[in-house]
Amino acid sequence: MESAYQVCLAFELRDRGLQVETEVSLPVVYREVQLDVGYRIDLLVENQVVVEIKSVDSLMPIHQAQILSYLKMSDKKIGLLINFNVTLLKDGIKRLVNNL
After folding, report:
1. Domain that holds residue 33
2. Taking the model in full, what pTM does it have?
3. CATH code of the domain in which 89 resides
4. Between 90 and 38, residue with greater pLDDT
5. Vertex 30, ends 23 and 40: CA angle to 5°?
């Protein structure tokens, strides 16, 4: 389900004139070598906002830790953790800030 939500959200944001990248790779630098370990940002909006999409019963601390790690690794400040498995979407959105 998350992949369908991702495609639809990217479509809606682009339809509103925003620049959106999907599945943005986040390599890890280890001993001065970039390694692709499979980390991917679901959506990167306007090269500023990291969006992580979930469809779970409830958001867990690990989900917050994931997006905070992505913010640090990508050197971005603002993140949105969006859980689509809620009655009202506004109840499934959590904003996170990386205090660089």
Report:
1. 2-97
2. 0.91
3. 3.90.320.10
4. 90
5. 10
